TrEMBL record:
Its cofactor is K(+); Mg(2+). It comes from Aciduliprofundum boonei (strain DSM 19572 / T469). Homotetramer. This is Bifunctional NAD(P)H-hydrate repair enzyme. Binds 1 potassium ion per subunit. The keyword NAD applies. K(+) binds at residues 60, 129, 165. Keywords: ATP-binding, Isomerase, Kinase, Lyase, Metal-binding, Multifunctional enzyme, NAD, NADP, Nucleotide-binding, Potassium, Transferase. (6S)-NADPHX binds at residues 59-63, 133-139, 144, 162, 260, 331, 382, 449. Residues 225-508 form the YjeF C-terminal domain. Its EC number is 4.2.1.136, 5.1.99.6. The gene is nnrD. Belongs to the NnrE/AIBP family. Belongs to the NnrD/CARKD family. AMP binds at residues 419-423, 448.
Length: 524
């Protein structure tokens, strides 16, 4: 499914009206009906139920009034609080306001927090939030903030129109304060702010309605943000040998960094990869060797600090010639000579590579080396590593995740995986995939190392490089979700995520459609 910006949504609206003659009145009717449907689904019968609706000054308020009229028509009691003078309503919103007035639906101006408003809210079964939608243009203050506070303090079921009021539709950021909804129905396409955190969490259960736009209305290459749907795996070759499922070289580890090489190299096997080679400082081998017997070790000369020595370069290049994919950097340390080695390997390895962890720090000294690469490259930074790569502050990255990831991917011709809740995967042609699997239990040491192994495994299973990165991110999050389901989010470790990789891959093979649907946005 495509995800739009606020501006793109406006253009789609305009196109629907101008090209197909789907007037704004119809769009508003459809929008209100979509949320009405969600309410029915949540509450069952609405006859005799009490609703309080907060209607803002724009079309979001118009939607809330239109919805109120539907609730009224079907036997519910509705009271509307108008956030601003109804003189402001235009077009469909104005028409619906006037209908509601004629029908005699109770409407009052909201003049700020007072006992009467709180009492209505207290007596209601549910709240409709139509204060602000995608037209939010500044931080929420004054009586708008007061209304949001009343809603959030009410402990009632809250249904948000399009997007919880106060959430920025382009970034998902809270603009001062925002409604915490139980359900949100968004219209046309989901907006980026519905899908990125924290907006996604504020939406509660998220639904999308296409409000009768024809599907071709969305066929626009400029709308290039997508939900990261899983990619079907082709059946395993029955007569396959370990070489049939990929041969991966992990250049990873240093003295005191045993976890990263272990988790990345072993996760490759756990997710379905065939042959896992770990090239690491020689004194690391005895520590991991006993636990990771499935891994093939290439002990390398080391520095005084027990990191991989620069002199290992030719040997690594030689091994790299015979593998399918190379992973550079998990736990290779910040030793200056080792960093130099990794930096040069990035430029010289003629295979697809994934750069993670300390490899990203090595790269950040000279990002232009990426432009010399003739083979596919993926980078998997968390926001801290992204900050090192771009020189931007972490806040700047968090506030513009999509644009920062996209610009880097385009400029350096790489696939950039910006990790975190709902990881963004940016492609060199500007497409972005937002990943929906995973949970906060995965914010645990070593979890990122499991990811690199999983991506490499997908390549081993025969997906192309771009698909492997997308599917690796999906499977890694799914394994984390399975671990959370079984053990609870609090205690998940990288080992748990790794241990659930076989089940995650199996689930995707056996129940592909179910898994895909579970992580898609529900359509109403
Ligand atoms: N296909 C679709 O998606 C369809 C979308 N539809 C609906 O349209 C909605 C978008 O409508 P919209 O453009 O009228 O904007 P909306 O969010 O109602 O607010 C604008 C008003 O709020 C004001 N305002 C802004 N910030 C403020 C603040 N912090 N504090 C206080 N006030 C603030 C702003 O004032 P101004 O900035 O002009 O001073 C202006 O008056 C969309 O979310 C969906 O519900 C459906 O009807 C049908 C199809
Ligand atoms: N709240 C969250 N929801 C979903 N996934 C998360 C969340 N927090 C972290 N993750 C995932 O967990 C992994 C953490 O990786 P990283 O930050 O590199 O940790 P480490 O360096 O400790 O391995 C990433 O894949 C990231 O997307
Ligand atoms: K809203």
């Amino acid at each position: 499914m495509r995800i739009s910006t606020v501006e793109q949504m406006r253009a789609l609206d305009k196109r629907a009206i101008e090209v197909y003659g789907i007037e704004d009145k119809l769009l508003m009717e459809n929008a209100a009906h979509a949320l009405y449907f969600v309410i029915l689904k949540a509450l069952g019968n609405i006859k005799g139920r009490k609703f309080v609706a907060f209607a803002g000054p724009g079309n979001n308020g118009g939607d809330a009034i239109t919805l109120s009229r539907k609730l009224h028509s079907n036997g519910a009691y509705v009271k509307i609080y108008l956030m601003s003078s109804p003189e402001k309503y235009k077009g469909a919103a104005k028409m619906n306001y006037e209908i509601a007035k004629r029908i005699g639906i109770q409407m009052e101006n909201f003049d700020g927090d007072n006992a009467l408003v709180r009492m209505s809210v207290e007596n209601a079964d549910a709240i409709i939030d139509g204060i602000l939608g995608t037209g939010i243009s500044r931080n929420v203050e004054g009586k708008y903030a007061e209304a949001i506070k009343i809603i959030n303090e009410s402990a009632k079921l809250v249904f948000s129109v399009d997007i919880p009021s106060g959430i920025n539709g382009n970034t998902g950021k809270v603009m001062g304060t925002a409604v915490r909804a139980d359900y949100t129905a968004t219209f046309g396409l989901p907006k980026i702010g519905n899908v990125l955190y924290p907006g996604f969490e504020y939406c509660g259960e998220l639904y999308v309605s296409h409000i009768s736009f024809p599907p071709e209305n969305y066929e626009d290459d400029n709308i290039n943000v997508f939900i990261n749907e899983p990619i079907p795996l082709s059946p395993r070759k029955k007569d396959g040998h370990k070489g049939s499922f990929g041969d991966a070289l992990f250049v990873a580890g240093a003295g005191n960094y045993y976890g990263a090489p272990y988790f990345s190299a072993l996760s490759f096997l756990k997710a379905g990869g065939g042959y896992s080679r770990l090239a690491t400082a020689k004194s690391v081998v005895p520590f991991i060797g006993t636990q990771g017997r499935e891994i093939v070790f290439h002990p390398l000369p080391e520095t005084d600090a027990k990191s991989i020595s620069y002199t290992a370069k030719e040997e690594i290049l030689k091994i790299a010639k015979n593998v399918d994919i190379v992973i550079l950097g998990p736990g290779t340390s910040l030793h200056e000579r080792t960093q130099k080695l990794i930096e040069e390997l990035i430029g010289e390895i003629e295979k697809p590579i994934i750069i993670d962890g300390d490899g990203l720090t090595a790269l950040s000294h000279n990002t232009s080396i990426l432009k010399e690469r003739k083979y596919p490259t993926a980078l998997t930074p968390h926001p801290g590593e992204m900050s090192r790569l771009t020189g931007k502050s972490i806040n700047e990255i968090l506030n513009n995740r999509i644009e920062v990831a996209r610009n880097f991917a385009i400029e350096y011709n790489v696939i950039l995986v910006l990790k975190g809740a709902h990881t963004q995967i940016a492609m060199p042609d500007g497409r972005i995939y937002i990943n929906m699997t995973g949970n906060s239990g995965m914010a645990t040491a070593g979890s990122g190392d499991v990811l690199t192994g999983t991506i490499a495994a997908m390549y081993g299973l025969g997906l192309d490089f771009e698909e492997s990165v997308r599917m690796g991110v999906f499977v890694h999050g799914l394994a984390g979700d399975l671990a959370a389901q079984r053990k609870g989010e609090d205690g998940i470790t990288a080992r748990d995520i790794m241990e659930f990789l076989p089940e995650a891959t199996k689930l995707l093979r056996d129940e592909y459609e179910n898994v895909k649907d579970r992580y898609d946005i529900n359509v109403v």
